Amino acid sequence: MHPPEVLRLRASARPGPSEIEMASRGKTETSKLKQNLEEQLDRLMQQLQDLEECREELDTDEYEETKKETLEQLSEFNDSLKKIMSGNMTLVDELSGMQLAIQAAISQAFKTPEVIRLFAKKQPGQLRTRLAEMDRDLMVGKLDRGLYMQQKVEILTALRKLGEKLTADDEAFLSANAGAILSQFEKVSTDLGSGDKVLALASFEVEKTKK
Q1: Roughly what angle, to the nearest 10 degrees, separates helices 145-161 and 168-177?
Q2: Which of 67, 120, 172, 199 could lock 101 by a disulfide, CB 3.0 to 4.6 Å apart?
Q3: DSSP code for 193
Q4: Distance between CA 120 and CA 47 in Å, rounded?
Q5: Whole-angstrom distance, CA of residue 160 vs CA of residue 119
Q6: Which residues contact 105 (CB under 8 A, 6 or more apart)?
């Protein structure tokens, strides 16, 4: 084969400018979509957080009704997310953490908005930082032990779901303290292919909140 022919074949094998531009545009659109979805999730998590902070000021019916509405909004958001991710492996990779976090919130497996937010954004470092701060707050009496236990279980579960290695002590703590709903969530969400099972659990929990 003559050198010019070799060069011509090499050139034809390279992606043309339009292909490069399309790939770049695809990444930009994915990034914008992810940012948009994160902002929507942030707003819903803020709603939950505000609700918990104002709980003492609301009567029981008002609190339950507002929480139910927020969970329903999360369910709708999760349905939209499933449609967006359908058949797009790039988005599945990008948004899988967000989907699991939302499912954890809907099923009431996770109750701490900030932990759900960090789980959704795949921030294991910040989750570990929060856990360290909680350890300090517990030692100086700034954090109720019951709340500490609940949030530590949520954080450790989130870390495990994000592929982080847990210490033997953390694994033992999780096994001893995970509640029934959290254990069920952990079981059915072992892989992303179990999404429908997780959603079935979530739907069951949402229906329970309506009763």
Answers
A1: 120
A2: 120
A3: G
A4: 16
A5: 10
A6: 45, 48, 71, 74, 113, 116
| 66 Cβ contact list (under 8 Å, min separation 6) | 51, 58
pLDDT, tens digit, for every residue of 7-58? 444 444 444 444 444 445 567 787 888 888 889 989 999 998 999 888 889 8
Give the global pTM: 0.72
**Rounded to an integer, what distance in angstroms lies between the CA atom of residue 154 and that of residue 176?**
13
Is the Cβ–Cβ distance between 206 and 67 less than 8 Å? Answer: no
Digit-coded pLDDT (tens) for 101-143: 898 888 888 889 999 999 998 999 999 999 999 999 999 999 9
Q: Quick one: residue 20, left, alpha or beta (phi over 0 = left, psi -120 to 50 = alpha)?
A: alpha
- Termini Cα distance of the chain: 77
Ordered alpha helix ranges (H), 121-144: 124-139
Helix (H) or strand (E) holding 98: helix 89-106
Provide the token pair at 8. 């011509």
